[in-house]
Amino acid sequence: MYTLNLSVIFASLSFFSGLLSLFIIVKLSSHWGKKAVNVFIFLMISTFVWSVVDGLGFMYPEAASRMWWYRINYLSAAWIGLFLFYFVRSLVDTKPVLDKRYYLLAIFPVIMTFLVFTNDFHHLVWQDLRVVDNGRLSVPVYSHAPGFWATIVFSYGLVFWACMILIHALKKSRGRIKQQLMLVLAGILSPLVFSILYAFGSETFRQIDFTPLAFSFSGIFFIVALQRYQMLNLIPFIHKIVIENMTDPVIVLDRNYQIIDANPAAKNSFGIKDDFLNGVSFKDSLPQLYEQIISLIQHTPLETQISFQTGPALKHWNLSLSVLEKKKNHQIGWLIILKDITARKTAQDALLESGRLHRLVLEISPNPIAFYNKKLRPTYINPAFSRVFGWEPYEILGNNIHFVPEDILALTRRNVDEIFRHPGKNHNFVSRRHTKSGEVLDVNISAVSFCAKGDSPDSMVVNYTDITHIKKAEEIVIQSEKMLSVGGLAAGMAHEINNPLAGILQNNQVIMDRLTRDLPANVRAAENCGLDLEKMRDYLEQREIFVMMDLIRASGLQAAKIVANMLSFSRKSEKRKDTHYLHDILDDTIEMVSSDYNMKKNYDFRLIEIVREYQTGVPPVPCEKNEIQQVFLNILKNGAEAMADAGVALPRYILRSSYIRNEVVIEIEDNGPGMADATQNRIFEPFFTTKEVGSGIGLGLSVSYFIISKNHGGALSVESVPDKGTTFFIKIPAQKN
């Protein structure tokens, strides 16, 4: 009858357990270098040695060889508890290395190794060894010594510690991480149970150590954890705890784009299912995010910004995409971390829009605006700056430009110092600036300093307003007020001069009568004096007394005319106005002045070319013809004299008439020498003249100005360019129907 040999069966089971450990060692060898993987390989080596040596012990039960198997088994048993503890700590810890205090635990297995190989001298580990053979199974029987029990306490203590760590981690874990930890715990408990039965069980269990056989179950649990749940490939447990508490969504994908884990933030944000045992389709759960992830996935970490719809709103996210692990150039999984930046993006967009609007305001501002640094070098100028001052950005930015007139340079420097001493305060003052072409502009400056970097003001923005035309307008207003005041003065002067002037002319006439006429009173007076009137007259003629008297009379009449002009200058005419066409009055004046030939000035008005550009349909205006004719005459004679003095070869007048906004406009343009700005500003002032002393008194144009403005409610103005000619504009309101 065949007898079953149990030694062969136990040996085969031990070898099978060793093969499972060897399979795991080979499978993980390509991942050597990771903390948890390295410790797990050492753990599997220990179980492999224990299982194989135990199988050899069943195959070769002789006492002599059994002692060597026992020593090697003992070494494996002494180290396996330590490696198991190290593995659990590595599995759930995030530190790159274990705490140095844990490495001190290795002192005990080292000491036990020494005691095992020297046991024949001290018997601290076991005292004797015998083999009990019942024909079907050879069983070694040991007499355990204190060293054995010390090893039991040390190993069991570390294993229990590791189990407590796993149980604590299991309470906080979910999904595949929880499945991993459950399988690891089962793999630890299987040999632990049999080891406890061997050490503390009945006599039957104490005869045979089934721990190596239990490693078969451990190997199966570990292989399932490695194959199905990617143990050692996914994030460590403590990382998981951190991620669970993160407010940002975190999603873990496997290589098949299945969601194998997600933190609560991701579940709440995207409604992801909580069951990750068999994976959740990433494409079905988040199709918009899936499409973007697929287009971005690569073999290196990536950070970018994406946007996709979550519910009714479009949200913006900061995406961090990392590869969990590579194996033979294949991606094992991906870690997706999303940070909601919608509020920040909205604020940034609003800030950018605000900046764009501010830039637009600067760009379209009609006033020149410039930004300066502390060294007063422009860092920005708007288009109006280039348009007004002439410098282009490439000419001015970063460079010092000298467009402050020398006479106000010191004042400008003091103003700038004041601006930087009071940051944030608006400073306003009027100044002058040069343009690129050399023209000087009057500008109103509004400036403020601010802190672009740091705590002290280092930048300044300046808004320039060109007030040159305003200044000119103010000068015109002042000039008009001056002319009005002079008008009152002229009226008073005219009345004061009229009385003595009348006496001079009257007495001059009486003297001429008494010297030249044979009046009875003259004859009687000559006879009483014994004078011959004819001889007296011959004397007076020879001494040119009569000529002098005529000159006195002529001067008096000229003075009377000046007085009349001054009175006209000072008060509105009370003469009745008729309706006349201004171009007809102008033609009549041309005809009248054409007979004028000034011997002293040596000009002939008939040699001046007259060009008429009269607009058709120009209506008549209510006016006093003689006064308007006097205005035309003053302008034409002044222009003729100016062209003669300048030696214009082909003098010319261009006469225009037009009807604009209920006003009839007459333009008288010459091609004479023109006038400078200073002369134009004073041309209508009373008593202002550019002629030599004795050639004019400067009342012609001032009287003309008041004839048009006061007596006719119109306007008289002039435009002139040196060496280009002068144009007078006469505007009078048209006749109302």
Notes on the structure:
With 737 residues, the chain is of the alpha+beta class. It has 26 helices and 22 strands. The longest helix has 49 residues. The protein is rod-shaped, with a radius of gyration of 60 Å.
Summarize the structure.
With 737 residues, the chain is of the alpha+beta class.
Blueprint (SSEs and pairs):
Layout: H1 6-28, H2 35-59, H3 63-92, H4 100-103, H5 107-117, H6 119-122, E1 126-133, E2 138-144, H7 146-172, H8 175-200, H9 203-207, H10 211-227, H11 237-244, E3 250-254, E4 258-262, H12 264-270, E5 280-281, H13 282-285, H14 287-296, E6 302-310, E7 313-327, E8 330-340, H15 342-364, E9 369-373, E10 378-381, H16 383-389, H17 393-396, H18 409-421, E11 427-434, E12 440-450, E13 459-466, H19 468-516, H20 520-529, H21 533-542, H22 545-570, E14 578-580, H23 582-593, E15 597-598, E16 603-604, E17 609-614, E18 621-623, H24 625-646, E19 652-660, E20 663-670, H25 677-682, H26 700-711, E21 715-721, E22 725-733
Parallel strand pairs: 17-19
Antiparallel strand pairs: 1-2, 3-4, 3-8, 4-5, 6-7, 7-8, 9-10, 9-13, 11-12, 12-13, 14-18, 15-16, 19-20, 20-22, 21-22
